[in-house]
Amino acid sequence: MTDVTFNGASVAARPARRDIGLKRRYAAEQRFRLYGILAIAIGIFFLFALLFSVVSKGYTAFWQTSINLSVNFDPKIIDPQNKRATDPNVLLTANYPVLARNALAEKLGVETSNRPALRQVSGMISDGVRTQLRNIVVANPSIIGTTQNVWVLASADVDSANKGQVDLSVDQARRKVSDQQVEWIRKLDADGAMVQRFNTGIFTFGASSRPETAGMGVAIIGSFYMMAIVLVLSLPIGVAASIYLEEFAPKNRLTDIIEVNINNLAAVPSIVFGLLGLAVFVGFMGMPRSASLVGGMVLTLMTLPTVIIATRAALRAVPPSIRSAALGLGASRMQMVFHHVLPLAAPGILTGTIIGLAQALGETAPLLLIGMVAFVVDYPATPLDPATALPVQIFMWANEAERAFVERTSGAIIILLMFLAVMNLAAIFLRSRFERRW
Amino acid sequence: MSGFLIIAIIVATGIAGLIAGRQRASAQQVGSQEKPHSRSHYHGWWVFILAVLPSLLFLAIWTAGSSYYASSTIRAALPAQTTESAIASRSLAYSMIENLAHGLRVLGTDGLSEVPSSFEALRPVMAEHGVALASDTQDYMIPLAQKLNSILNVSSWAGAIIAVAIALGGFFIGMRGVAIRARARNNVERVILGLLIAASSVAILTTVGIVLSMLFESIAFFRSVPPHEFFFGTVWDPRFAAAGAGNTDGQFGLIPLLAGTLYIAFVAMLFAVPVGLMAAVYMAEYASPGVRRVVKPLLELLAGIPTIVYGFFALVTVGPFLRDLSAALAGGTSFIQAQSVLTAGLVMGIMLIPFVSSLSDDIITAVPRAMRDGSLGLGATRSETIKRVILPAALPGIVGALLLTASRAIGETMIVVLAAGVAAKLSANPFEAMTTITVKIVNQLTGDLEFTSPQTLVAFALGITLFCVTLGMNVFALYIVRKYREQYE
Hints:
- The structure holds two protein chains of two kinds.
- Chain A is 63% helix and 5% strand.
- Chain A is mainly alpha-helical.
- Chain A has a three-stranded antiparallel beta sheet.
- Chain A starts with 8 loop residues before the first helix and ends with a helix.
- Chain B folds into two domains: 3-182, no CATH class; 251-488, MetI-like fold.
- Chain B has helices at residues 3-30, 40-77, 90-108, 119-128, 141-177, 184-224, 227-232, 255-286, 289-304, 307-330, 341-365, 369-377, 382-411, 414-419, 437-445, 454-488; strands spanning 236-237, 251-252.
- Chain B has a two-stranded antiparallel sheet with strand order 1-2.
- In chain B, helix 8 runs antiparallel to helix 13 and helix 11 packs across helix 13.
- The longest helix of chain B has 41 residues, at 184-224.
- The two termini of chain B are 61 Å apart.
């Protein structure tokens, strides 16, 4: 026994508590806690840094500088030989930018004989004015000879300068906006002839090499087609597969292989699906490149594991008593699943599907491989036409060097994140509104 | 006859069967003393299935078979390939004929009575109808294109007639089978079960498709570049594929790409693992439910942001920031390049934080309560409990989670495409640009490409390497996670 050696004297004078390092241990405890808080702070800091960086660079993309011009549709410039009655091509090929340039020169009081100044004047107006004025004239040829008030887009450099993004202290030879142009911008601003208006173009225009006329229109439609295809294919296939695996599959080798497969597919790098799409859909089956149909099918294969995993969880959450009750009342297993289990699991399935769709919407790499990095100007009429997708458009703009494209890219990211936020909020809403807990 | 119309006819037959079968069954059931086996709509659906399913299956097989037959017939009729042939390859010639045949079909609807026998005469007519033809289309191709059209025409008509006949046959067989004691429900349910099984085999088909497609293309690649040069080569310099040149003097060494991939993934893990793990520990062990409810979704938001956004963040914010920071530190010259291993690794690490934290969170909370209570009861502080009891108990699961995360880091594409650079070099300096397997797959496959050059095919060899590496890690990780889970359940 240990108290054999117990010494009575020491009881009277109790020694100081043995130092078991409590202070040190508590300090370690505090430190450890601090590390945890620090880790979370780092994560949240980067989340906000990322969002701040995108939003601060991108919110200006939703405003676009426009100039109000009273354009004189001079028949001498549009149709110098007066042949428009016989040759419709005259109206299509006329020199419209000159009309806008002259209008602006008049407004700024620049002599038409002053060539260098005129060149600077036309540098203020976007080249997109050509199509804009052409569309006006082609739609209504009787406008020729009259003077109309038209809002035209300013060029990207003027737009940046007007938004205060150009450093005016730099020597004028080293920036894209000259002092003369800056002066004009101030003048137009003061007159109210140059204003920043909400930029609808970023939602509607197709691809363009000029930032001010580049938009996400084609990409939005392409992404919409792809999401529709993903939804139509992955929801029925995913739900059917999950029903089989969860409710009918016998415990055997084949079922095991399918399950392992699905778990692995969920972790296969997305670019590998792009290679699959390129080799099988484009190469072997001969489907068109750059088409949203192929993109949608590749994304479907990628999304399937997500949908299956979510659906199986939703099916598993339906209590067995419901199955037993249905079977006990004489339903067949098929009736039990389709009449009782599936409707009860539907909110969970929908939530999982929306989350899968959101993942597919943000996916870029596989789409690059099947050729969706294309310069597409016109809206795709069917899913078989060439199109781009939102994230691919972001990738293409991110590779452009111009300052104005950085703004556009950030704006595009904001649009993409908005779409994702809406989808995720819908999922959260569905879950909180319809999900039942037993 | 258009495929859409045939399918519409078949489905219409099926719907007619659905209605007729249902009515017939109810009519029988009304007057009968016997107890019916199935409800009447099952009879309807069974007639529908008999009418639609076999004929659609037939149509699919027929279409594939007839286009294969047509192409092999035409290919056999092509003149022998010689060195002087104007067209580089038989498949090119065949695609020209296909294009021509398509043009003739477009023309045919406008009632062109006589097809010109020479290409010179045909081309302007085609161009008028908006069909562009290759300029070196040969005269002999025109009759072949006509033959192709006639084969396709005959086979599509024959297929349509047979398919509709099968649909009608199914309809009548189904209608005759409607009877009080007929087991219609069992039949319908068996078909549905078959469809469910087919849907779940899509997963297997996808895997098989991935493996086979990449295997075939990789084998084609290894025919021109020996495998040991690919797997052990230290120089990556694929050159550009000049169309038709067919030279293979590029060098395809995997090692620099693999090194870059692993290096960047390592830097990313170096950042993500401590942060993610500590965040998970804090949330699982310290955080109050209120804090957890706010913080956990915030961290998971990071996982919902598309990787292209991270790539852009690295490109325009993190890269320049690190470059300027290093310039300020070193006094003028920046030693960190804007595109570097560090930039890509850091941003990828941010992306991985939520993966590490939510996977580890699940695993830590799965450690039984009793182990915590035991340790705390013996006087250990919470951090000691975590370090000495919980983490060791959760270790296998955490290793599995980290493996899954690492495989994601290796397969990540968009961040490295934008932030890591394209220079394939072997270097240990994290401040310089390196490149990865995924970047090179994207580089080799974007732009105009020819499917036969090694410069393109190498992407598939890279792809299968990537697939095998990540697959190995995933299988191992899933094995560990599953085994560990069973331990406590």
